[in-house]
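Friendly challenge for the regulars: who can give me the structure tokens for this chain first? No prize, just bragging rights.
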Amino acid sequence: MLHNKILNWLLLFTVAAGIFTTIGCKKDNAGAAPVIKQIRAISPSPNDSVLTAALPGQIVVIQGAHLASTAQIIFNGFAASINNALFSDDNLVVTVPRIAWDSIPDGKLNTVEVITAMGKVTYTFTIIAPQPSITSVSNEMALAGATIVINGNGFYGVSKIIFPGGIAVTDNFTVTGITQITVTVPSGITEGGPLQVVGQYGTGTSVLLFNDFVTGMFTTFDDGNYSWGAYEITNDPVLFPGSIGKYAHIAVPDGIGAGDFAWYDGKRSMNTNGVTWVLPAAMNDPVSSYALKFEMSLKMPWGGASFYVIKDYSWTYLARFEPWKGRDAAVSTDGWITVTIPLTQFKTKAGSLDGTGDPASSLSELLGSGSGSLNFMLLNSDAIAAPPFDGAFDNFRVVKIQ
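First reply, four minutes later:
Bragging rights claimed.
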């Protein structure tokens, strides 16, 4: 009997010791400093391999131990947004934050820090600085001496802008933040092509073509490739300064009445001969890859009426050009600017409004064979009269935008 009691006491002691040992281990784990073993992409296989580098904005998974109580994750000295619902003891799902590359603290370059209540761990990991990227230029056909604005991103430590023909500008430009460069167009540009921005972390090359009067061009008005239209063709450089050769002048000094669709009356339209919108070999490209571009200069603010843009006088797909809508004030240009209308903005009719429905699913659906006239017509579909309009247009073309 005594023997059985001793066995029972020994068994109870063993179980209790095991329980206290387990609790002790858990407390030790909970009180341990964080550990980072590796960082991987969040994307499914085959992209879930270990990463050696990542870009700002990329979602990554930090893997290690003792991570559940993470309070801060810091990349290159810049804190990431924290979402504890995406954390576990061995995984942290986090988005690499935006990095101010010109103000990284000393010793923080290419580091990831994880901070918990029990300590901090620092892990060496490359954050890739974005190369400069160019998204648009205020005037793609600007003359030498004109001031243009290059829009984009990643403009860190810009040392020069290279224009077509390898003409480099190393001064006479100002960088605003990391998204805008104001530069004076140099002399001597005799060909068209992309722009390049050379920065601290690489060189960005534009998809857009500067000073290119050939690619995708419908009409420059100097080539005579325009049909009838109620508009004036002039080459007066005083009327619209900064113009290049001939351009179309559309003026409606008395304004346009409510519901006035008579685009063919007065000087309110521009129409080309048959032109190639997209080459046959490219008709399988996405609609989003192309845009209609042209240059515009307004002599007075534009605050009413719309340009309807169609192909071959067919209103099935129509783009509404009305940049004044949704603004508190009328639109002004302060000289010539480049206008971009993506072909995805050519839409069907929805209800009673043309050009507000669905875009075409393919280039062939939108353009047929890919060729036809361009029709650019000023009218007023609104229930109130539109004020006077006075503007000039040039260099209508369809080009790739991506």
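The chain has three domains: 35-127, 133-205, 217-400. Residues 1-29 have pLDDT under 50 and may be disordered. Your move, everyone else.
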